[in-house]
Amino acid sequence: MKVLFIFYVPSGGVETLNRQRSIALKDVGITCHFLYYENRRNYLNEHYNPVFIKNDEEEIINLIKKHQYDAIVITSDFKMVPAIKKSGYKGKIFVEIQGYGSIQQTRYGFSIGKTLAENDIDGFLNPRTPHISTLLSEMFPNVPKYEFNNCFDCSHFNYKATGKSFVQPIIGWVGRIEDNKNWQEFLNICFLLKRKLRNQLQVYLFEDPTLSLPEDREDFFKVMKKYHLEKNINLLPNIPNEKMADYFSIISDSGGFLCSTSKIEGAPLTALEAMSCRCPILTTDSSGIRTAVTHNVTGKYYEIGNPKEAVKEGIELIQNQTLRQTIINNAVSHVKTNFAPSLYAQNFKKMMTSTLPVSN
Question: Which InterPro entries does the entry mention (predicted)?
Fold first, then answer.
């Protein structure tokens, strides 16, 4: 069985998921190919299976005809569905929704999808994201929905002891410098934490500058300067995924945590990476995060728009060692149990062979 996965760019959570499921699905006899419309970076993370970079519709259709895929999974891009159907492709087509921006943006995207593709797809794939599930049920009541957790392989991406002692806790943040990631609030939290910890604070900010607008970056540096965080923040652009485990482990050993300030998110892949590396997470309730984080069990929540509460919860993660270790241990166990690659592979294969929705 051969499946083609299509997405815009090899970056962010979808790329991480593709790399993970490339290995997981091989164990159940499914070969994965990956197509991205463009690559804005000068490197490509290992996918363990063929990767194509094409944005010409005719070239894409020729690729599909050449490889005779049993199924095609298109992440977010409804506009590709009519072209594939028009080409005479007879296999299954699934639209995967890993995240779509705000609820308003998601609703708008789905309204376009209803016009373009509602009658041409065999189902939706969604990693149990609450707001996505609700909107899919409302707007596509007659299209099958397949809902199960993404996979995450803890055996390859996990904690690596640094053997170092740290004077200052390190706070991590991962994302694009754009509105939904809520970077403004993150900088406010850093400012308050810095004051609370008497300037004993370092920040690792992981980003892909190719995915942000120049005006947003200009605003970011203005706010960073306003809060006098220039010496505290380390900008780390385009870190290869295989090196992120080292960074999350450093944050863990420093006594810090990963902070997620997003307004709305689909799948919690960054959170899973941190949790697997024993790096605790403080997060907003961004919908998709709920499958990963339970407050004071596998991580911590704070109310979005309330940076003072974020600081309070963050300080507890730093200073309350008993709670910190309990959260870390619970988080690792949760990822291993509920996001196991073997579980994902079983669910995906059911989706490929069954006409009934798979929900897990």
Answer: Glyco_trans_1
Q: What pLDDT shows up at residue 79?
A: 95
**Top-ranked range on mean pLDDT: pick from 9-18, 58-67, 234-243:** 58-67
Do residues 259 and 171 lie in contact, with contact meaning Cβ atoms separated by under 8 Å?
yes
First to last CA, the chain: 23
- Is residue 354 over pLDDT 80? no
Cβ(358)–Cβ(148) under 8 Å?
A: yes
Q: Are 46 and 15 in contact (CB under 8 A)?
A: no
Rounded to the nearest integer, the mean pLDDT of the chain is 94
Q: Set out the domains of the chain in order of their start, with CATH numbers.
A: 2-151+340-353 (3.40.50.2000), 170-338 (3.40.50.2000)
| Of the candidates 267, 352, 237, 228, the residue with the CA atom closest to the CA atom of residue 14 | 267
Q: Which two tokens stand for residue 70?
A: 């049993």
Indicate the pTM of the whole model.
Answer: 0.89
